[in-house]
Amino acid sequence: MQRYIIVRLFQSLIVLFAVSIIIFGLARISGDPMDVLLPEDAGPEEFRLMQEKWGLDKPFHIQYLTFLGNAMTGDFGRSVQHPTREALDLVIKRFPATLVLAGLALTISIVIAFPVGVLSAVKKDTMPDYVAKIFALMGQSAPSFWVAIMLMWIFAVQLNWLPTSGRGDPGLDRLVHLILPAFAIGWYQVAALMRLVRSSMLEVLDSEFIKLARVKGVSESKVVWKHALRNASIAPVTLLGLLVAQLVTGTVVTETVFSYPGVGLLAVDAIRNRDFQVMQTIVMVFAIIFVGINLFVDVIYAYIDPRIRYA
Questions:
Q1: If we measure between CA atoms, which residue out of 213, 156, 205 comes closest to residue 181?
Q2: Given a cut of 60, is residue 125 above it in pLDDT?
Q3: CB atoms within 10 A of CB 198
Q4: Neighbouring C-beta atoms of residue 2, cutoff 10 Å
Q5: 180, 223 contact by CB (below 8 A)
Q6: In whole angstroms, what is the distance from residue 13 CA to residue 165 CA?
């Protein structure tokens, strides 16, 4: 077991190392930060001094090694757009807003996906099943930005029920501001989770112990919601671990559409302003979250099924 964990941990570190190289290179391809740091009439001497200040006068590999060494100590540098602020501090300040949004989106996914998936399995090849499959197909096919715009157009512009942007004041107003972006993010996850619940339920409902429970006279609702769903929940619950990472890291587009002040909107602003320090920090934080949750799921898998560690 220890060998399995060490191997998975080593693989995770390799992934993070590769991500650091990729984002470091892409951040510099996005444009020259000197265009943001200096006015248009800046002279060669000012240009040289600013490059020295930010370490941009050094060779690419030296810049990367400096970034990697500092990042390993938690120092991701200062923001180009806000020179007095640490890039990591800016990300941490925005992170709670993104976590709340992702948490509500996950809640919506669970509340909708499990009942609909169970109903779709129980009513196989009937109208409820067809409607659920169409709903899932649309959720997995429609781009998140299109879903966000359509929700905004229907519920904010046409019906004037919900706000179009911002985070709102603490309390009920903040919850109201979260509804549209959370549903826009969660719909895709609802579709994926619902399909998995449906397929797992169909497999369990056809098993011998379910047939035996029905023969013994156990009520259908108890058979479905207690015996079948409990055994069918293993795969969906495992998927939830991966969904958490996807929800946290997949908020960029939706936060931009709704002008929601989370890490996703901060990432877009950093790209627009060529703030490569903030870009690198956001991608590395997201990568650590995603890789960390996947590593956790792998370890849990190994404890649940010992055959995995020997594969």
A1: 156
A2: yes
A3: 25
A4: 7
A5: no
A6: 38
pTM to 2 decimal places: 0.78
pLDDT, tens digit, for every residue of 31-73? 667 766 776 667 777 777 777 777 777 888 888 888 888 888 8
CB of 272 closer than 8 Å to CB of 162: no
Rounded Cα distance, 217 and 44, in Å: 87
- Contacting residues for 187 by C-beta, under 8 A, at least 6 apart: 139, 142, 144, 147
CA atoms of 266 and 211, how far apart (whole Å)? 54
Residue 40: which residues within 8 A CB-CB, separation 6 or more? none
Determine the Cα–Cα distance for residues 165 and 178; give it in Å rounded to an integer: 9
Count the neighbouring beta carbons within 10 Å of the beta carbon of residue 94.
20
Is the distance from CB of 177 to CB of 254 less than 8 angstroms? no
Mean pLDDT estimate for the chain: 82
Structure tokens at 110: 């669970």
> 60: which 2 tokens?
């690419």
**For residues 124-163, b (16+ Cβ closer than 10 Å) or e, as one string?**
eeeeebeebeebbeebeebebeebbeebbeebbeeeeebb
- Residue 122's CB is within 10 A of a number of other CB atoms, namely 20
Q: From the CB of residue 223, how many other CB atoms can be counted at a distance below 10 Å?
A: 19
**Span 82-92, pLDDT tens digits:** 878 888 899 99
- With a CB cutoff of 8 Å and minimum separation 6, the contacts of 19 are 283, 284, 287
Overall average pLDDT of the 135-147 stretch:
81
H-assigned helices in 123-166: 127-141, 144-151
